Amino acid sequence: MNLSNLTPDLKLKLLSMLSSASSSSSATSSSSATSSSSSSHHTCSSLSLPPHHTIISKQDKKFILSVIDTIQEQGYFIKDEFQSNDLTQQTKDQIIEMKSSLHQAGMGEEGSTKYINPELRGDLFKWISEQQVEENTPLRKTLTNLNRIRHVLNYVFNLQLDRNSIQIAFYSNGARYIRHADATPLQSPDRRLTFLLYFNDESSIDGGSLQLYRKERSFDNEYRTPYEYQLKENSDNQVIVKPLFNRLLAFSSEHYHEVLPSLSDRFSLTMWMYGHVDVWQRIREYTRSKIFVSICSYRDSELQHTIKDMFEKAYYPDRLRVGICLQVHESDSINDKFDYRNQSYSHQIKEIIMNYKSSKGPCYARFLIQKYLYQQEEYYLQIDSHMRFDDGWDLTLIKQLHQCEEEEESRNNHTTLKKSKLAKCILSTYPVGYELPNKIPEHAKPTIMVAKSFTKDDHGFEMLRLGARVIMQSLHQPVKSIFFAAGFAFSRGRLVLECPYEELPYLFFGEEMYMLEKFHCKSYQIYSPCEPIIYHLWSRDHRKTLWQDQQEDSNRLTLSWKSFVENHFKPLTKTSVVSIDSDLYETIDDVEQIQLIKQHSQNMVQLKLKMNNNDQPIITTCVESTQQHAPSSFFEYCGIDFTQRIIEEKAQRGGLSQHYTLI
């Protein structure tokens, strides 16, 4: 390529374009992506994810969240004292010993467009890989520390960064590298993140800073990268980062930057991380998508603590939108220890407040929440009012749901159907229990729901009884299961639109099988989480139940319920109290009438499941399902013959093979 006939301005512009369009087989010093005389020896380290026994600590997660949140907020991340100063100094000494093996860096792609121009890029460099460096050396330990960042990123955000490339760079005597990007849409598009570690004492630094620029490219879409954040350190929307000893710098590989002339010796180590997933689109979905949390609560003093723990344990609590159907007696002290109605997040909570005598069971409460409070948030979490949460539960649920969807898409990648139609998943199980007030078991194993037996209630209604078994193996992603837990289910928000709750008044025993049949007809697949995320209080000693109140014939109210809500709740709350149809305030005191209504709901369940020989199964809800694919019948899916009351081994194991040890 002959550049001699071009004007200096055009030459500089062309060279800058060539540098930013360097191929994936090339790399940069400091933070660039170009070729050199030795680029043919460049290899990307394709390292596996951490061994299964590797523990990702809370400190690891906190660091990664800091990296990602800071890059999203300001476009870059800086961590001083990345590792021990002794290790960094020893690593620098080892790199200096390798100086004689460094090569002059070039620009452009390998072949006819490759060229060397030290005035535009003047560093010396060398490609290395973690495997090529001798074990137990300082450099190997530093590379392991850097590569651990990739492992934790994959663990927290499921970014699928499957490989890296590493480069040592040396600048001196005024060497620089003009403005460029490490990745472009045409070249190295799978290069996602750039991490630089510097080795230069502040007293000896003379130039060599890295200058970052705001985005200027029109091809960036809404989710492409965090370029839209203005860098405000100076009036030109630029930021200058000094290459200080043991300083780690991270930014998107699509971020334009340049290395300013370095008059002193300047050493750096760069690691680029690669993957086929659009990193920033996924991160934004994981961190910014709203989660609607549906909670039906019947005279439960644990509701206040459930809400408190839920907001405190979420990594991104601002994204939560909570809908509560609160069924209470005037004398109940539901906020005696913690008033969730007057917190900084109270505006994120909406409530339907009902006289407990107007309660018609959990299905009716969930129906009201979905109908009046759900606002088409991206994700939907349905829980009970007595729960505790793991740290970062919101991020973990989204990550695991995505893993389920990816597995479903992989199972169906040979079909002609759209993946979005197939990847319908629900994370659900009977959670591990906790003890009051906040005792969560350590080292708890995941659980899977199983079929236990057919049993009858006091009125002769027969239904399948479900339970949970503990999976003894360590799991690394959710496992495909069969059954649905109404007290813990997480999905995309479209589930509410496709399979909404029906009123089904006074139904409790049978709710989960009724809903499971609806989900199956709409091609939803149930998965069990690979680790405990949310915990459930299985003891009922702290609260009353609807069935107890009905039997005890509690004292009648002496105050108009509407008046009670208007005078006692609304003036004292920052939450939104939703007033709806006046029928909510009507009560049914006739126990026999309640039982008749309950039997009607139970008959609906038995009819849907064809539990009697003369029943005709309801098939109208499965029309869409048969158009999408040809699934086995619901009964084959469950491993249960509802008519003959036969439970197969498949159902007793929750769909898991003998490979899994269950207790």
UniProtKB/TrEMBL annotation:
Which ranges carry the Fe2OG dioxygenase domain?
162-275
Domain of life where this protein originates: Eukaryota
Compositional bias (Low complexity): 23-49
Q: What class of enzyme is it?
A: oxidoreductase
Give the Gene Ontology MF terms in alphabetical order: iron ion binding; L-ascorbic acid binding; procollagen-lysine 5-dioxygenase activity
User: What reaction does this catalyse?
Assistant: L-lysyl-[collagen] + 2-oxoglutarate + O2 = (5R)-5-hydroxy-L-lysyl-[collagen] + succinate + CO2
- From the Swiss-Prot or TrEMBL record, give the protein name: procollagen-lysine 5-dioxygenase
Organism (species): Naegleria lovaniensis
